[in-house]
Write a structure and sequence with these properties.
By secondary structure, the chain is mostly helical. It has 2 domains: about 90 residues, Orthogonal Bundle (Rna Polymerase Sigma Factor, Chain: A); about 100 residues, Arc Repressor Mutant, subunit A. Helix 4 packs across helix 5 and helix 8 crosses helix 10.
Length: about 200
């Protein structure tokens, strides 16, 4: 039993490419990729489409990835861009839902709270106001530009990783990111909460 435990521990240290390569002959190995990324992909889908569709998007992402494991480029050790690319394609099918959600969040009124929590309430109201403004701004960004922006801002991808996920040239991803950020900044009075601090365009 200890040998299996050590083998499982060693397998969990393998790169995604190694695991996916092994999963071609041993399909059960793909569970490692699922365990590594399911919650992350689910959170991303939930932020974009809401909780009601996130379960379906995340599940379908991994079904497609499992079916396409034989075509995965094992020269790429990290499967995140590949998985997020699949998820982004699935999310694109729900573009109207995403835009409706962002517009609805943009219209959210400030909520009433009992007195006595003034500082906490003020901070929360500020966050809700910015969140609503950001959602309204995101609803106005073209879908393909929004895909790049949200992969960078919400999934923590570099522009190159976003390009890889969306299967577009890096220069195209940079242009889309710049265009999306420009639109968001204009809508938010020069502020861009999507800039991570590591990247500037």
């Amino acid at each position: 039993m200890a040998v299996l435990t050590r083998a499982a521990a060693a397998a969990s240290d393998d790169t995604d490419a190694v695991v996916i390569g092994q999963a071609r002959q041993e399909p059960e190995r793909f569970a490692t990729v699922f365990d590594r990324y399911y919650l992350e992909v689910h959170r991303y889908a939930a932020r974009r489409l809401g909780g009601s569709l996130a379960d379906d998007i995340a599940a379908e992402t991994f079904l497609i990835a499992f079916d396409q494991r034989g075509r995965y480029d094992t020269a790429r050790p990290d499967a995140r861009p590949w998985l997020y690319g699949i998820a982004s394609n699935l999310i694109a099918r729900h573009q109207r839902t995403e835009v409706r959600q962002f517009r609805a969040l943009g219209r959210v009124n400030r909520f009433e709270v009992a007195e006595g929590h003034a500082d906490r309430v003020a901070v929360r109201l500020d966050v809700e106001a910015v969140r609503g403004q950001l959602a309204a701004a995101l609803a106005k960004v073209a879908a393909r530009d929004r895909d790049v922006l949200l992969l960078v801002a919400w999934a923590g991808f570099s522009c190159e990783e976003a390009a890889q996920a969306l299967e577009i040239p890096s220069g195209t991803a940079r242009s889309r990111l710049h265009r999306a950020r420009k639109k968001v900044r204009a809508a938010l009075g020069g502020v861009d909460p999507t800039v991570t601090g590591e990247d500037n365009d």
